[in-house]
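Dear Dr. K.,

Following up on our conversation at the group meeting, I've run the structure prediction for Phosphoribosylamine--glycine ligase from Hominisplanchenecus faecis. I'm pasting the input sequence below exactly as I used it, so you can double-check it against your construct before we proceed with anything downstream. Let me know if the numbering doesn't match what you have in your notebook.
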Amino acid sequence: MKVLIVGSGGREHAIAWKVAQSPKVDKIYCAPGNAGIEEFAECVPIQAMEFDKLVAFAKEQAIDLTVVGMDDPLVDGIVDAFEAEGLRVFGPRKNAAILEGSKAFSKDLMKKYNIPTAAYETFTDASAALAYLEKADFPIVLKADGLALGKGVLICNTPEEAKDGVKTIMEDKKFGTAGNTMVVEEFMTGREVSVLSYVDGKTIKTMTSAQDHKRAGDGDTGLNTGGMGTFSPSPFYTEEVDAFCKKYIYQATVDAMAAEGREFKGIIFFGLMLTEKGPRVLEYNARFGDPEAQVVLPRMKTDIIDVFEACIDGTLDQIDLQFEDNAAVCVVLASDGYPVKYDKGFVIRGLDKFKDKDGYYVFHAGSKRTEEGIVTNGGRVLGVTAKGKDLKEARANAYAAVEWIDFENKYYRHDIGKAIDEA
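The predicted structure tokens came back this morning:
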């Protein structure tokens, strides 16, 4: 098979790495890719939103399967564009990717089908939102409706913070058109858990659990980011929690989308909050998480090509999805100043130390090959992942491997997975 992967981050590197393990695959392309993905794939200079060029490339190269890693092209209808030309592609169509593309849509869906989530209200007018917030309980959560690189969520502890938040999202348009509509949501407390799943329109099979660390600083301080690290599995995701979610959240979501005429095929990423009243949905994503993919895929035993094809063909019920009985931790190495302002172009040293080391991986998020070598090319630069027999061993291994890498203005959190010490 010839496979095309669309994207350029750590998630796409993890997907390429996993696809390369399939005996069914002879050739991998990635558009546009990055310096790490080059190890497994031929990178082509086509951007993820250039649908016409991607479709033309897939036809010219007789691509057998295209895998879309990123949210923007999915929400904008890349799958529809490929299917219109008779091309096989893994991911939800535009009318299903709205599950991530509009928080207002997903909240309304959960309300209609009694899927547990936080209480909320939706606003398209800033003055109406401000009037509502005058009577609201705090803390409270403000969410830009559309895609905002994982950063469009503001937790407001006071009315003053909430007023500033409305201005940021709806008036100043910090997140662009994503802020034309805003969701105001009840603040929930508890443990956050990420559960990724494969879906074929009717059947859903969940992957192993994980937990992301969104804030830039140690102790969950600082600004929201695209993710500073993850661990898998979550010790807080018990068999009891899993049973509840399977009954009231996972299958219910798939069935709800089908009932709405929005058959979902691809990945549903469930962001959950384990509250005192039980699990609640924080948000849906319509693709692999980043950096959740970097800890989940290294633990996956099943051939990913078989799973992708089963999702497309509606035969997921025939797949025995298996994961290793171990753990993985990913620590993101970022550029100091991320997610606001940072410099790029610094040479990365130590990448060769991961070669032939079983259970240690370095996934590139923002890197570029130059005459000087591989250099930093983004806010999140690398995801250093390590496995272990349990979470504590995996965490120790990951932080040991972090020291193998060096580049100017290297920054990372020192407490990824610290919650596991409390489990």
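Two things stood out to me. The mean pLDDT is 96. The first helix runs from residue 10 to 19.

Best regards,
J.T.
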